[in-house]
Amino acid sequence: MERIYEGFAGIYAAGPYPEFSRRIAGALPAVLGFLGHEVRTVLDLCCGEGTFAVEMARQGMEVTGVDRSPAMLELARRRADDAGVGVRFVETDVREIRFDGEFDLVSCWYDSLNYLPDIDDLGRAFDGVGRALRPGGLFMFDMNTIEGLAVRWQQHPSYEIQDTDRIFEVHRTSFDHETRTATLRITGFVRDPDGRWRRIDETHRERGYTITEISSALERAGLRVRALWGSLEEMRDLDTGDGRVWGVAGRAH
């Protein structure tokens, strides 16, 4: 995969994106209660700038965050320090995680798994999740559906995300139906302390997977699908028109 979330890391942290992680962290206690699952240890894959990991640590959990971007991990460590919580952060690719039965919960949020370009990569990630979970542990994640990437992302092929006195950010999207791949071209301008504007460009690609492909890959990794929802907060069944799937899978006892 291309190196991304490097120059874009600071723009990401300053934008609306961390609020998504806060929303998940706020909803999770009720969801875990509904599932009847007690959590003490958490592995947050593709943890980014650390918002979800830090929020879980604030809730009293022992948290490890994993990401392949050094720039994002630097922001995550700073966020944990500012919050006064201890989180272990590890730099590695989600396809190469090496943990052995350590965690009650493994999470992977904000469609990070869509960045894996083919089903074999997705399977490698799920295999690592299965190894990392304790018997009876849960894996929770979200992914953009093909509907989300092919239709919802394309409703506004060019749109503005941030426009402040310090940051300007615009996105352009496209979708390749043959490969089921959405391309997101990000252009950002950041005002440096000397007043000059610096341009940052990154290209992000997300692959769409069918629900059958996702479920089968989980099962092959020894993870039993417990729920596929169209909304985390509502915990309602997935509908064909939903742009995002929220998944729960468990490792056998």
What does this structure look like?
Helix 2 packs across helix 3 (51-58), helix 3 (51-58) packs parallel to helix 4 and helix 5 (119-132) crosses helix 7 (211-220). The chain has 2 domains: 8-144 and 210-251, Vaccinia Virus protein VP39 (Rossmann fold); 148-207, N-terminal domain of TfIIb (Single Sheet). It has helices spanning 9-14, 17-35, 51-58, 70-83, 119-132, 146-152, 211-220, and strands at residues 41-45, 62-67, 87-91, 103-108, 133-144, 158-163, 167-176, 181-191, 197-207, 223-231, 236-237, 244-251. The chain is α/β, with parallel strands linked by helices and 253 residues long.
Descriptors for this entry?
253 residues; Rossmann fold; 8-stranded mixed sheet; 4-stranded antiparallel sheet; N-terminal domain of TfIIb; 2 domains; alpha/beta
Helix/strand/pairing category? alpha/beta
Arrangement of strands in the largest sheet: 3-2-1-4-5-12-10-11
CATH architecture of the largest domain: 3-Layer(aba) Sandwich
Shape: globular
What's the level 1 CATH class of the largest domain? Alpha Beta
What fraction of the residues are assigned to beta strands by DSSP? 35-45%
SSE arrangement:
Layout: H1 9-14, H2 17-35, E1 41-45, H3 51-58, E2 62-67, H4 70-83, E3 87-91, E4 103-108, H5 119-132, E5 133-144, H6 146-152, E6 158-163, E7 167-176, E8 181-191, E9 197-207, H7 211-220, E10 223-231, E11 236-237, E12 244-251
Parallel strand pairs: 1-2, 1-4, 2-3, 4-5
Antiparallel strand pairs: 5-12, 6-7, 7-8, 8-9, 10-11, 10-12
Helix pairs in contact: 2-3, 3-4, 5-7
